[in-house]
Design brief:
- By secondary structure, the protein is mainly alpha-helical.
- The protein has one domain.
- It is built from 10 helices and no strands.
- It has helices at 2-15, 20-32, 34-63, 72-92, 104-115, 122-137, 140-156, 165-186, 188-191, 197-225.
- α3 (34-63) runs parallel beside α6.
- The longest helix has 30 residues, at 34-63.
Length: 226
């Protein structure tokens, strides 16, 4: 069950990746409440499931090129994607914190929003869900890291007789990812003072280094087996 613990680690890493969803989740939780943030995150989760299905289909096609036990091509593709995504995080990804300008108009608007929080209806929830779904779906990086994660999963379950283990692996990643997102939304007000630019940059560098390490490991492991 080594793949189960690695799935937990990957889920934790994904939860703290810095991007539009990360900031919007915290913002929605602070301005509109925990329930609104969860509905937004459910939209993100559904779009992740869509990309997981595509990634599994792609992975099965690659595995079908050779024997089912031949993970070489899939591991090379997955390792390359992990390495490229980690390199992007380390050297090319720009991190910034947008601080809203505080004016009398903003304060009046915030007071109005707070006074109308109880009026949030089904339409608002649907829009929040679609916002999370669309934002995540249109992020090209999402499909890249899900392809890499699925490839990593197949590499980890290589010695398993039953291939349903890949679904346990993916389910664990998604479960940890969503659970930590819920925790972030719940603690958003307390986390806000701690979210500094230096902290975000350090977190981004750490995740990039770990992803590059996973990519190198996947590639070298296959060549060492030859």
């Amino acid at each position: 069950m080594d793949y189960f613990f690695q799935a937990i680690v990957i889920g934790l890493l994904l939860s703290f990746m810095i991007g539009p969803v990360f900031f919007l989740l915290l913002e929605i939780s602070i301005t509109r409440g925990f329930k609104a943030a969860i509905i937004f995150d459910l939209g993100v989760l559904v779009s992740d499931l869509f990309y997981v299905i595509l990634s599994l289909f792609f992975a099965y096609q690659l595995r079908g090129i050779g024997t089912l036990k031949n993970n070489f091509l899939l591991s090379i593709v997955g390792g390359g994607l992990f390495f490229a995504y980690g390199m992007y995080n380390l050297w090319f990804k720009k991190i910034s914190i947008i601080t809203p300008q505080i004016t009398s108009d903003n304060i009046l608007e915030q007071d109005f929003n707070v006074a109308n929080l109880s009026k949030t209806n089904t339409k608002d929830h649907v829009l929040l869900f679609l916002k999370g779904f669309t934002l995540n779906l249109l992020n090209p990086g999402v499909v890249v890291y899900w392809l890499a994660i699925v490839a990593k999963g197949f590499d980890l379950i290589e010695n398993q007789v039953e291939y349903w283990h890949i679904y346990i692996f993916i389910g664990t990643v998604l479960g940890v990812f969503f659970t930590v997102d819920c925790l972030k939304a719940y603690l958003a007000n307390k986390l806000k003072p701690l979210v500094t630019l230096n902290l975000l940059k350090a977190l981004n560098l750490l995740i990039g280094a770990v992803f590059m390490g996973i990519g190198i490991f996947l590639i070298l492991r296959q060549f060492l087996r030859m």
